[in-house]
Design goal:
Keywords: Ribonucleoprotein, Ribosomal protein, RNA-binding, rRNA-binding
Shape: globular
Oligomer: single chain
Radius of gyration: 14 Å
Helix content: 40-55%
Protein name: Large ribosomal subunit protein uL18
CATH class: Alpha Beta
Family: Belongs to the universal ribosomal protein uL18 family.
GO molecular function, one term: structural constituent of ribosome
InterPro entries: Ribosomal_L18 (IPR057268), Ribosomal_uL18_bac-type (IPR004389), Ribosomal_uL18_bac/plant/anim (IPR005484)
Number of helices: 4
Strand order of the largest sheet: 3-2-1-4
Largest sheet: 4 strands, mixed
CATH architecture: 2-Layer Sandwich
Structural class: alpha+beta
Number of strands: 4
Order of helices and strands: HEEEHHEH
CATH topology: Nucleotidyltransferase, domain 5
């Protein structure tokens, strides 16, 4: 793709991200689960926006999963176990400007299947 097309796509994602973040925030009982997706891996964080602290984080590269639907399911199940160990059962899902489709949707569904209410 040309550089200007990539720049336009990134700018549109940033606009969606800001619009979403204006409406949601997390606290210690209901943290915000933020997702970042690159071409190679996924990153997930549970964030307490009141104290500006990351409560839990997981990196798909350290687990050895790729940024596809199967990798999203595996990383979500491990992240759900990490959240349960910290006694967090409910959260707010922040798709970070990504369209709720494919990998992002598989990640959210897997979190729900593993007992995290979104």
């Amino acid at each position: 793709m040309r550089a200007n097309v990539l720049k336009r796509k990134l700018n549109l994602r940033i606009k969606r991200k800001k619009r979403i973040r204006a409406k949601i925030s997390g606290c210690d009982k209901f943290p915000r689960i933020s997702v970042f997706k690159s071409n190679k891996t996924l990153y997930i964080q549970a964030i307490d926006d009141v104290k500006a602290v990351t409560l839990a984080a997981i990196n798909g590269q350290k687990i050895g999963v790729k940024a596809n639907k199967e990798g999203a399911k595996k990383i979500a199940s491990e992240f759900a176990e990490l959240l349960k160990s910290k006694k967090i059962n409910q959260a707010v899902f922040d798709r970070n400007g990504y369209i709720y489709h494919g990998v992002i949707a598989a990640l959210a569904e897997s979190l729900r299947e593993n007992g995290i209410k979104l």
